[in-house]
Task: inverse folding
């Protein structure tokens, strides 16, 4: 994979003395009576909400509720699109034909946009979830299919939608090639390989559980410091958005600590849209 590159969307430092970053979390990850994320508490902290669109989690009532509450708080709404995999929470590897995947991405974005617009907002960006996110880092065909889905959704809505993802990924190359804005994402609570990709969740240490370490990593990313990779090397992650996973135990309290630390460090925390 090519070296990490800075984001091409707003979110980079606004001046040499004022670092700026977006704080995002995955929300709406429930179904029926089952709820995984503390949406209300997270919406009080984050500036962008990656809302599950029904394929890995989420249902119409949940999508509507999260969109309404995000709109009330002025939080940007993003469509978190996934493989069709409710049973596996979108984290199982799947082989989906490109034309089918493009249609499913557009379908998910469109479904969420109905509720976002009804709430007085709109879907403002797209971010893949789980196995699709990781597959689109290297798989040019699947990445192109995701971008085609974004194109279809953008054509229908009239709004070109930025694509949030890993810098230097096949997804970002495809999105940039199609004329879409790309936003580089870093993860506060995930371990990195030395090439800037994420350590797979199937491997030990893939998720950072120590709250102090998560907070320190977050401030380091936002202020241009280094993050230690799994092999001990130091990575500099030029990111426009920082993700705290909503399904991590205690995610809301952890996100609040991250936000407080960023504020204390003089970071301007705001959405990239």
Result:
């Amino acid at each position: 994979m090519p070296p990490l590159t800075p984001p091409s969307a707003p979110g980079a430092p606004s001046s040499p003395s004022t670092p700026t970053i977006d704080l995002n979390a995955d929300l709406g990850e429930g179904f029926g009576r089952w709820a995984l994320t503390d949406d209300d508490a997270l919406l009080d902290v984050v500036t962008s909400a990656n809302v599950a669109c029904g394929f890995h989690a989420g249902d119409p009532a949940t999508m509507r509720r999260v969109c309404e509450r995000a709109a009330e708080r002025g939080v940007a709404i993003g469509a978190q699109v996934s493989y069709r995999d409710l049973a596996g929470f979108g984290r199982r590897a799947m082989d989906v034909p490109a034309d089918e995947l493009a249609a499913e991405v557009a379908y998910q974005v469109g479904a969420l946009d109905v509720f976002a617009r009804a709430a007085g907002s709109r879907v403002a960006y797209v971010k893949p979830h789980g196995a699709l996110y990781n597959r689109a880092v290297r798989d040019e065909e699947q990445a192109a299919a995701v971008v085609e889905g974004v194109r279809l959704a953008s054509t229908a809505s009239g709004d070109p939608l930025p694509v949030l993802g890993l810098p230097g990924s096949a997804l970002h190359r495809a999105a940039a090639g199609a004329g879409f804005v790309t936003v580089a994402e870093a993860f506060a609570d995930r371990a990195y390989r030395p090439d800037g990709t994420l350590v797979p969740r199937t491997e030990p240490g893939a998720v950072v559980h120590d709250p102090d370490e998560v907070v320190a990593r977050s401030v380091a990313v936002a202020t241009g410091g280094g993050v230690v990779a799994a092999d001990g090397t130091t990575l500099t992650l030029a990111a426009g958005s920082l993700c705290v996973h909503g399904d991590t135990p205690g995610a809301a309290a952890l996100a609040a600590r991250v936000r407080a630390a960023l504020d204390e460090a003089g970071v301007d925390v705001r959405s990239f849209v």
In short: The first strand starts at residue 20 and ends at 27. The chain has eight helices and twelve strands. Residues 1-15 have pLDDT under 50 and may be disordered. The helical segments are 39-43, 60-73, 98-118, 130-138, 140-157, 170-177, 211-222, 251-264.
